[in-house]
């Protein structure tokens, strides 16, 4: 019944009206396809491309960092214990401060204790030691004391 009413309505239109209605239906369909399907897919694709490029940059940075870490570990692990100790103490002296106590214990490594050291100076020294010699502390214990740091820095004994 509904189909026959629609057919009668369509047949009662002039050919020119039918053509205009068809063109309008095609235009609405194209609009719906463009805004409902094509534009969201296009936006999703652009988003995926940006995410992929960002992921590629992160992967390259991580791979570069992994290579640098491996190189530092190799340098630090194969260094002569005397050369490591010398590098630690020389960079400490060039930073302009000295430890309050210093112990070199077999199996543990070099332990340096500071009763009062400015935090920026301690961190700058450790960064210099890491970047120039590839040496980092095995442990670092610090606490505040009168606006300064009280710190104990231990450097592990070099691997034989």
Characteristic key phrases:
160 residues, alpha+beta, four-stranded antiparallel β-sheet, 4 helices
Break the fold down into its secondary structure elements and pairings.
Blueprint: H1 2-11, H2 15-78, H3 81-94, E1 101-105, E2 109-117, H4 119-133, E3 139-145, E4 148-156
Antiparallel strand pairs: 1-2, 2-4, 3-4
CA-CA gap between termini:
95 Å
* Strand arrangement across the biggest beta sheet: 1-2-4-3
> The biggest beta sheet, please?
4 strands, antiparallel
Total helical elements: 4
Instruction: State Rg.
Output: 36 Å
The overall pLDDT average reads: 86
Characterize the overall form.
rod-shaped
What proportion strand?
A: 15-25%
Helix content: 55-70%
What is the SS-derived class?
Answer: alpha+beta
SSE series: HHHEEHEE
SS elements, strand count: 4
Low-confidence stretches: none
Account of the 3D structure:
- By secondary structure, the protein is α+β, with helices and mostly antiparallel strands.
- It is 64% helix and 19% strand.
- Strand 1 and strand 2 form a beta hairpin.
- Helix 3 (81-94) packs across helix 4.
- The radius of gyration is 36 Å and the shape is rod-shaped.
- The termini are far apart.
Quick take:
It is built from four helices and four strands. It is α+β, with helices and mostly antiparallel strands and about 160 residues long.
